[in-house]
Please model this.
Amino acid sequence: MPNLFGELKEGGYRTSVFGKCHFIPVKYGETRPDCTLPYEEHKQYYRSLGIDDLTLQDGKLVSAWYYDDFSKELDAQGMLEAYRAAAWDKSKMKVYPYPLPKEWHPDCWVGRKAEQYIAAYDREEPLFTWISFSGPHYPFDAPADYNAAVDKTKLPSRRLKPGELDDPSRIHHSSYHGPGRIDGAGAAPDRACKNYTDEYWERLTVSYYANIVLIDEQIGRILEAVRARFGDNTLILFTADHGEMLGHHGIWGKNNCAYEDVWNVPLLVKSPGEAAPGRSEAKVMLTDIMATCLQAAGLPIPAADSSDLLELHRNGGRPYVFCEGEGFAAISDGVVKYIQVDKPDETFTELIDLAEDPEEFGNVLHNPELAAKRFVLQRALAETFMRSLLN
Model:
């Protein structure tokens, strides 16, 4: 199946990845607290996608579980055992100050490796670089001295509505009341996110934003290296695979989440020669990154649900945006959002009216005034998957 790395490599680009891949499932069930396991089959698969140069830090926890490039360097420095011990310490509940020197934080390591590579790049082929920071994904482990960079008085208040998840038909009823399956429930007392204290939520949120400060520093250094090496002849995209609940609705994590906190991620695009900043309200998707990069490279775009972001901006964007995962799918037209979970032991359906309920507290699935809108969204969702999976 065509992919971004392979298409660019075939088109004459040198392709490189720094940081997190996760392009095939990690074998979570095989992980052990007393050792870090081999990871060569993953690395071989990643290279088969068309990645020429791979510097792997495949996730904050994955680097404790499996022997990626970051783990190997930690091991050579005698620090892997301490890193692994912190990752497996359940008493920390996924929130703790980074236990090693900050230059050995995964996001510092990824930023340093990418900066050095770009600064030293001397090949004739044009360069494509994918830099994937593990943070601010959990565990929330910013180095302690970065917490001072976060103004606690400006942190957003947790958005909560008493009783909003009391109905067992709500997707995150068990995440809040326990025993839940969202990422954050696993560390909570009785696997119920409602049992976290206000002090815990503050520590988690401060560490999250502190990690963003650290990443921002790394991005600044990388951009300096890009300007020094390539000038303005570079397409730069910045985005994220998902957001984080941060205690809103009383939960943290991302599993089964179509809340705007998780779904509506940052997206910045800097085209060569572009100087004036602007903001677009056009609805786009992460799938559009592929077409955007290939269009900029002057390469053909294979059959894919992908369109150039600049063209989408000029044409007003997509009518709908989709999000999907294992047994999970959602669709939004920017005003009304339909979410469906269909797993062996989880079946849920919700409809959120963003116009009337921008905080996303209520499920209006059975509101007769929205029945027609619900039908339109369900049909668009079904048609999308039928075109991509059943043709």
About this structure: Strands lie at 14-19, 53-56, 127-132, 236-239, 267-270, 321-325, 328-332, 336-343, 346-353. The longest strand covers residues 336-343.
